[in-house]
Amino acid sequence: MREELIQILEDYPNQKEREFSGNDLAFYILREARDAVANALPSDLRGTLKVYASAGLGTWAEVPWIGIFDREITESAMLGYYIVYLFSANVSAEYLSSNQRWTFFRDTFGPKIAREKISIAAAALRRLLADIDDMVEERIDLASGRELGV
Asked: Does the residue 80 lie in any domain?
């Protein structure tokens, strides 16, 4: 699995200027890297977890990702909370992180209070996932100026 993540870090910056549709790296992220993460999961959890990857929808994503979703909580990055490999916008770093849907917090509480509320939710989620070795605990820098990548 590590080599698939490294290949994304190495190849993604060069691909963002190329056509997204039919691109080999986009396919690699959506299928091969996703499958590598899925195959690294404990076999007894494979039926309850879903792995999904995104390099973008029609155009390149600023922050590509590979998410691991517990089907009892969510099967989408648009709902609930999940574990995700995030690649920074400049693709200089990759993080294993617990995430939750920012737009829910923004739409529910407004942009000012949403940051405080999502921080509280993130702290609680980190406590639940404390035994995952590679999980980052500090604030991550996705090198993005966009709302969803901050």
From this structure: yes
Number of domains in the chain: 1
- Neighbouring residues of 2: CB distance < 8 A, sequence distance ≥ 6: none
* End-to-end Cα spacing for the chain: 26
Check residues 56 and 139 and name the one with the higher pLDDT.
Answer: 56
pTM of the model: 0.79
Amino acid at 26: A
CA-based max dimension of the chain: 42
Q: What is the mean pLDDT of the chain?
A: 84
How many whole angstroms from its chain centre is CA 79? 13
> How much is the pLDDT for 75?
83
- Rounded CA separation 83/77 (Å): 10
What is the rounded CA–CA span in Å between residue 145 and residue 70?
29
In a domain, 123, yes or no: no
**Domain that residue 50 falls in:** 2-100+132-143
Average confidence (pLDDT) over 122-149: 67
Helical H runs in the chain? 2-15, 24-27, 34-40, 102-109, 111-128
